């Protein structure tokens, strides 16, 4: 399972919750293993997971009938599923069904509710929670559906609970760490393939094709592909174009796919030909800043202290005007989990957090430079997931 149940239940207890409802796609997958595809690719579709407190019953998945094949997937460990909405799947009378198809047929034979809220209300009542204090992840539920839920459960107390999921997801389980490690490795290998395609006359799109092709070949799926060359590398969210590489161009990668739903986000830099003195100096400064940040991280250290030390180090080492709003973040099902390594952050590093630490620098008319590593916080410090080093790659 993906879910850190101990931590989720501790968060629920702190907020005096009898149950919690996942509504945003990352939390639905986290709480059940159910990847509600329509939630991930467009706004509006609803899928929920009701998780009662210990001793108050088992979790329940609320799924659209049109996604029932995904709800029936063996990776979904929550086995009680209520479906809503009409959807037709035909079956030949003499068809022999495998285990997955048999599960789909079983779920389709159940009665369906008219919509997601009706199904959620039914689940809440089934678990005897009509007068309970229920936390609802407020991010994924449509406002009018929240209002209908409150109207249908007049004796219940509904409270916003997205922060409870944020707290739970901050410390990863062993399976989450395994998936995140593989996701980071795939991204690292994909950068190597893109750099192998870098030559004078190659385009950003050529590099992107090499990067994403390797991601898929390694079992991942594309998500993030900011690949820019020359002065375009200073565009913070650069999208690959037909711009051709010429001698002296910087190549900046801020990239990552996903592996079994878990994200990667890493950054490396190359240069076509020998770097200028400024480029070498600035790249060295951001690398030393990254090393300083990583060297400080261990359980109990404040994220804000790491931020301050990191920025001060980059300034001292060669970019005196260096400024950042953050120098890293957690990663998981979402590209930005807790903690937030920022000056105003109240987050404290804990063992089992998986984090991306980064020191980007963007200067229009010159270049963008960025190094970003993914690591897991251990008892005594950190363990890196990276295969490559942060040095500027001369190609």
Which stretches are poorly predicted, pLDDT < 50 over at least 5 residues? Answer: none
Number-wise, the strands total 18
Q: What is the H/E string?
A: HEHHEEHEHHEHEHHHEEEEHHEEEEEEEE
Q: Major sheet: size, sense and barrel closure? A: 6 strands, mixed
**What would you give as the CATH superfamily of the largest domain?**
Creatinase/methionine aminopeptidase superfamily
Biggest sheet, spatial arrangement of strands: 4-3-2-1-5-6
What value does the average pLDDT take?
A: 97
CATH class of the largest domain: Alpha Beta
Radius of gyration: 24 Å
**What structural class should be given to the helix and strand makeup?**
alpha+beta
In the residues, how many domains can be counted? 2
Q: How much of the residues is beta strand, in percent?
A: 15-25%
Fill in the CATH topology of the largest domain: Creatine Amidinohydrolase
How would you describe the shape?
globular
Q: What's the number of helices?
A: 12
Distance between the termini: 43 Å
> Which range best describes the helical content: under 10%, 10-25%, 25-40%, 40-55%, 55-70% or over 70%?
25-40%
CATH architecture verdict of the largest domain: Alpha-Beta Complex
What can you see in these coordinates?
The protein contains 12 helices and 18 strands. Helices cover 35% and strands 21% of the residues. It folds into 2 domains: 166 residues, Creatinase/prolidase N-terminal domain (Creatine Amidinohydrolase, Chain A, domain 1), CATH 3.40.350; 221 residues, Creatinase/methionine aminopeptidase superfamily (Creatine Amidinohydrolase, Alpha-Beta Complex). By secondary structure, it is an alpha+beta fold. β5, α7 and β6 form a beta-alpha-beta unit. It starts with a helix and ends with a strand. α9 runs antiparallel to α10. The protein has a 6-stranded mixed beta sheet with strand order 4-3-2-1-5-6. Strands 7, 8, 9, 10 and 18 form a 5-stranded mixed beta sheet that branches. Strands 12-11-13-16-17 form a 5-stranded antiparallel beta sheet, with helices on both faces.
